């Protein structure tokens, strides 16, 4: 632990270089998530007022012709997915992937990712090779699906597309699941769940989330629950946004209109541990459960959807309860909300 000055806990000066690099990778990932899109927009607007205005015009033209890529499997780069930067990011927390059952590459899968947390750092298990996803699940190609809005942010959209993020639209899911051996990973709770991402809590937005079940049935993709222990421990809400508060009502209103929730969180900094946008060093363990096998149903009834949804909720709770004590969360209880 470092010493404190004016209530701020400073990081020791003798931190090894490899740990500094790990922190840099965590900071860069957070910065791109929180400010990457805004930085790119301001940069392109700035170029419009210089002799390099043509760069902005070229990018806008490229964006127009490339606008549907996020719904067509993205543009994943194996070089980027194998980058050393993600191994440093893995070791920062560290991040680990736990397999409980095989996934048959002759089938398709829809993996539910829980909890959403603030950023979903644990999804790096599925879009990079830092934790050996392709070795654990040979023949399975995974795609993490995110808000369409993120794929409208200049330059950031190219980055997330290159590591395997696509948008979470119906067209995107249908396109990816056309090919056997593919798996889509969906953060089921979405932006709404990020509002309840607080340390020592396991609040999961799932009760009324049934669209993913319908898509699984229509595409014949077996459902797989997963839970990342530690995801909610990385940041804390900077302000009290408990349900019913004025801030929460504003956040929910904004989220309903724009698609994402405006949140203000704090983690740690590069040279101190008291505040900042760098996530805390907390082990992230993503446990991938057993697949819930189903039969392809092009036009599922509401009864079909409800029954499978109930099975999924039970499987997720069982997965959480089976592993929580092993990973240090024995006193927590998973809570399904909304």
Please give a structural write-up.
With 338 residues, the chain is an alpha/beta fold. Helices cover 38% and strands 16% of the residues. It is built from twelve helices and 13 strands. A seven-stranded mixed beta sheet has the order 3-12-9-4-7-5-6. A two-stranded antiparallel sheet has the order 1-2. The protein has a two-stranded parallel ribbon with strand order 8-13. Helix 1 (17-47) crosses helix 2 (53-65). The protein starts with a strand and ends with a strand. The mean pLDDT is 93.
What percent of residues adopt helix (DSSP H or I)?
A: 25-40%
What percentage of amino acids are in beta strands? 15-25%
- Structural class, by secondary structure, is alpha/beta
SSE string, helices as H and strands as E: EEHHHHEEHHEHEHEHEHEEHEEHE
How does the SSE layout of this entry go?
Elements: E1 4-5, E2 8-9, H1 17-47, H2 53-65, H3 78-81, H4 84-92, E3 95-99, E4 108-114, H5 124-127, H6 133-136, E5 141-146, H7 156-162, E6 165-167, H8 170-176, E7 182-187, H9 190-194, E8 203-205, H10 211-219, E9 221-229, E10 236-237, H11 246-258, E11 265-266, E12 284-288, H12 302-323, E13 335-337
Parallel strand pairs: 3-12, 4-7, 4-9, 5-6, 5-7, 8-13
Antiparallel strand pairs: 1-2, 9-12, 10-11
Concise structural overview:
By secondary structure, this protein is of the alpha/beta class.
Task: Please supply descriptive tags for the structure shown above.
7-stranded mixed beta sheet; about 350 residues; 13 strands; two-stranded antiparallel sheet; 12 helices; alpha/beta; globular
């Amino acid at each position: 632990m470092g010493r404190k000055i004016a209530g701020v806990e400073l990081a020791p000066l003798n931190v090894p270089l490899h740990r500094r690099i790990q922190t840099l990778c965590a900071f860069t990932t957070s910065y791109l998530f929180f400010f990457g899109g805004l930085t790119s927009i301001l940069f392109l607007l700035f170029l419009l007022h210089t002799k390099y205005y043509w760069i902005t015009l070229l990018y806008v033209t490229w964006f127009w012709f490339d606008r549907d890529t996020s719904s067509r499997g993205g543009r994943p780069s194996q070089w980027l997915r194998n980058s050393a930067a993600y191994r440093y990011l893995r070791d920062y927390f560290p991040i680990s992937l736990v397999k409980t059952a095989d996934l048959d590459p002759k089938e398709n899968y829809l993996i539910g990712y829980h909890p959403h947390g603030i950023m979903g750092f644990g999804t790096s298990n599925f879009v990079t090779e830092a934790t050996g996803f392709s070795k654990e699940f040979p023949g399975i190609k995974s795609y993490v699906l995110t808000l369409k809005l993120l794929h409208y942010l200049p330059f950031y959209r190219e980055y997330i597309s290159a590591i395997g993020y696509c948008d979470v639209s119906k067209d995107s899911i249908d396109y990816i699941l056309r090919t056997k051996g593919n798996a889509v990973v969906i953060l089921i709770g979405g932006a709404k769940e990020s509002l309840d991402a607080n340390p020592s809590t396991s609040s999961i937005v799932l009760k009324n989330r049934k669209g993913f079940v319908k898509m699984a049935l229509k595409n014949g993709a077996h459902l797989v629950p997963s839970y990342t222990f530690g995801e909610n421990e990385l940041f804390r809400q900077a302000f009290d946004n408990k349900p019913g508060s004025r801030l929460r009502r504003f956040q929910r209103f904004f989220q309903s209109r724009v698609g994402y929730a405006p949140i203000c969180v704090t983690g740690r900094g590069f040279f101190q541990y008291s505040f900042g946008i760098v996530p805390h060093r907390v082990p992230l363990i993503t446990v991938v459960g057993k697949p819930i096998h189903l039969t392809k149903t092009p036009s599922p009834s509401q009864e079909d959807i409800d029954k499978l949804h109930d099975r999924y909720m039970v499987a997720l709770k069982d997965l959480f309860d089976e592993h929580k004590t092993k990973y240090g969360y024995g006193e927590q209880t998973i809570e399904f909300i909304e």
